[in-house]
Amino acid sequence: AEWRPLARSEQVQGVSLQESFLTFLSQADRYARLQTNGGFTMSAVNRPCLALVRDFPFTFLDNNNSSREALGNGESRSEQFVQHFEELLVRGELRRAVFCFNNSPEDYRSMKRLFLQSRAAGSVTTIEFPPVAKTFVQR
Predict the structure, then answer these.
(1) Which helix H or strand E contains 137, and what residues bound it?
(2) Which residue, of 14, 51, 102, 118, has the fewest CB within 10 Å?
(3) Model confidence pLDDT, tens digit, residues 32-82
(4) What is the DSSP letter of 34?
(5) d(CA 42, CA 132)
(6) Which helix (H) or strand (E) holds 51?
């Protein structure tokens, strides 16, 4: 399954894009699994399904543009997104989600804000891959 915003506007049918994204992630294990074209399939019926987020929508964390506007309770849209994201982590609703980040400082700040400063930081596992394979560095 792939999450795609239906429109470029802030809300679609009364639901914000941020909430739509979080709902998709929290329900990702309910979607059908990918099927292979013939060949060997390993009992996909009983296997857990993962949501792979290769390109995180960093605009949800952006404090610059329209997201700077305060909501009714004084929080910005990005603060509200991070709070809802953390709530999903604490409740264990994102346990089948894999997030990919680069080694850039911006990605690290986002990862730190979403995961490492969270109340659920203990339930988050980080896997780091070397940026350059060792076989290319050695002579």
Answers:
(1) helix 134-137
(2) 14
(3) 666 666 655 554 555 667 788 888 888 888 866 444 455 556 678 888 999
(4) P
(5) 32
(6) strand 51-53
pTM (2 decimals)? 0.70
**Token output for 33:** 């699994």
Looking at residue 65, its pLDDT comes to 47
Element of type H or E holding 18: helix 17-26
Geometric angle at alpha carbon 14, from 8 and 16, rounded to 5°: 50
Q: What is the DSSP string of 63-117?
A: -SSGGGSB-TTS-BHHHHHHHHHHHHHHHTTTTTEEE---SSHHHHHHHIIIIIT
Tracing tokens 């940026």 back to the chain, one arrives at 131
CA distance 11 to 2: 19
